[in-house]
Amino acid sequence: MTKLEGEQTLMRIFIGESDRWQRRPLYEALVELFRQEGFAGATVLKGAMGFGARSVTHSDKLLRLSNDLPVVIEVVERQEKIEALLPRLDAMIEGGMITLEKARVIRYRK
């Protein structure tokens, strides 16, 4: 089990719901990759509305169901572990954005 406390790195990956990696949803492939690599955890957040580099708005409020809503994957891990995985992420993500920032982790346990 990975113990994370103190200063860590928060990685956010911004992609679209319709993005794919080897015929499966990219966000699923990324979460599985993080699990296989022993990351402490990952969370996928589906946005209600957003736009990207092409300034096309995607919203769940349109009469038709949008099939490309914004998706954000959040991971908190040691910086070295994230940096080591960036080349693989670069190969998987064709369009989107990754942000990295310092995060102070306060872990609560039962």
TrEMBL record:
Residues making up the signal peptide according to the UniProt record: none
| InterPro entries linked | N-reg_PII-like_a/b (IPR011322), N-reg_PII/ATP_PRibTrfase_C (IPR015867), UPF0166 (IPR003793)
Query: Which SUPFAM superfamilies does this one have?
Result: GlnB-like
Superkingdom of source: Bacteria
Sequence similarity? Belongs to the UPF0166 family.
Q: What is this protein called?
A: DUF190 domain-containing protein
Which lineage do the record's taxonomy fields give for this organism? Bacteria, Pseudomonadati, Thermodesulfobacteriota, Desulfuromonadia, Desulfuromonadales
